[in-house]
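Sequence in, structure out.
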Amino acid sequence: MAEEEMVVTPWKVSGKVDYEKLIKKFGTQPLTKEILDKVKKYAGELHFLLRRNFFFCHRDFDWILNFYESGGRFILYTGRGPSGPVHIGHILPWIFTKYLQDAFNVKLYFQMTDDEKFLIHHNFTIETSMSYM
């Protein structure tokens, strides 16, 4: 029996997930012990999502940590493009972002991009998008 091809999209995950392939495909880097040690050094403790290996890769997290180590400051930016009700998939990254904000004492900008979903999803009205905010 042939193994099901790996599919990973924002809407579907199927087949055996090959994390190395995902890292290569998306141009990210593995989340190493060295990076986790550096986070712990500056944050005081590792967030439970880091301790439990919830994340497997990153993009430029090492660069930000090195910049911070040399005295640089940074900000955090995240948000939500409301296309449906909030669910646990939204909450976990927000909890982690709040940890980073507190641990590194940085500003956090959170944008509700209702216009983005309205413009992309032609079956959405602006009122539909706004109802999820």
